[in-house]
Write a structure and sequence with these properties.
The chain is of the alpha+beta class. It has 7 helices and 10 strands. A hairpin with a 2-residue loop joins strand 2 and strand 3.
Length: about 290
């Protein structure tokens, strides 16, 4: 598709005023003299024609002067406009350079923030994993895994001397810890380092909760090695001997998906700092503190 040919601008638009006036005046004079000579009608110069010539020259000079002043003014205006435009362009360039520098700083800062965020997230994941491992080891977090269920019950005879007591369960638990148990619960009560197993009358209390036989001891650990390692520990050997002598009913069953609950948080014990002699003399001055 051909493009339209642009139309040329009129001469009076593109030609400066002073040049246009000068050219037009000289062209008109030359044409008048040429026509007069060609026709042979030229007349000798008279005072009247001389006067008109003087007037024409004066008017022409005035026009030339006005055109010169106008051209000078336009030149000054054009120079000022051009200078202002150049200054504006330079100022915009400085502003653009400043914005580009700021963008570069923000991009670098964003990259540094993302790297810091990745580091913090990795640190958070590591701390969360450590917290889960500590919760599992201390008993204050629920755990799931394969293990063995030991069921312990009183002797069938019903003899008062052949019932399972707190010391009997404590021996079994100590043997299981020594054999490599990862987590232990008795009738749903999770065992921790602060767990108490005590008799109150005939009932065995674990974590201050009364339990009734049969006692279901759930142990998460290696199913292949835990029973043999239990027998090789001193507490495990003592437990097996005790169970045979008192005719306890005792069984072991493997479970691939044991779920042990988290232990209940117990209140910390209260104690006072200092020796007995110090506390006797400064009982009112020493505050109570909480110790684990």
């Amino acid at each position: 598709m051909s493009r339209p040919v642009p139309r040329a601008l009129p001469e009076h638009v593109t030609q400066p005023l002073l040049a246009k006036i000068t050219a037009q005046s000289m062209d008109a004079d030359y044409q008048h003299v040429a026509r007069a000579r060609a026709s042979g009608t030229g007349s000798p110069e008279t005072p009247r024609s001389r006067a008109w010539s003087t007037v024409v020259v004066a008017v022409f000079g005035t026009l030339v002067a006005v055109a010169g002043v106008q051209t000078a003014r336009n030149a000054d205006s054009d120079a000022l406009s051009r200078s202002a435009l150049i200054g504006r362009i330079q100022e915009e360039k400085r502003l653009l350079a400043a914005v580009q520098d700021r963008v570069g700083e923000l991009v670098a800062g964003n990259a540094a923030s993302e790297e810091s965020l990745r580091t913090l997230r990795a640190r958070q994941d590591d701390l969360a994993a450590r917290a889960r491992r500590l919760e599992a080891r201390t008993g204050f977090g629920p755990v799931t895994g394969p293990g063995i269920v030991f069921t312990v019950d009183d002797a069938e005879s019903g003899d008062e001397t052949q019932v399972v007591r707190d010391d009997d369960l404590a021996i079994l638990v100590d043997g299981l810890w020594s054999a490599g148990a990862e987590a232990i619960a008795i009738n749903g009560q999770r065992l921790t380092a602060r767990t108490s197993i005590q008799n109150s009358g005939r009932a065995v209390h674990v974590n201050t909760r009364p339990l009734a036989p049969p006692y279901r001891v759930e142990v998460i650990g290696d199913q292949d090695t835990l029973p043999a390692r239990l027998l090789n520990t001193s507490h495990g050997a003592a437990w097996y001997a005790l169970a045979r002598s008192l005719a306890f009913r005792f069984s072991m069953d493997e479970d691939d998906e044991l779920s042990l609950p988290a232990a209940r948080l117990l209140p910390l014990r209260q104690a006072q700092l200092g020796s007995a002699a110090d506390l006797a003399g400064k009982q009112k001055e020493t505050p109570d503190v909480m110790l684990p």
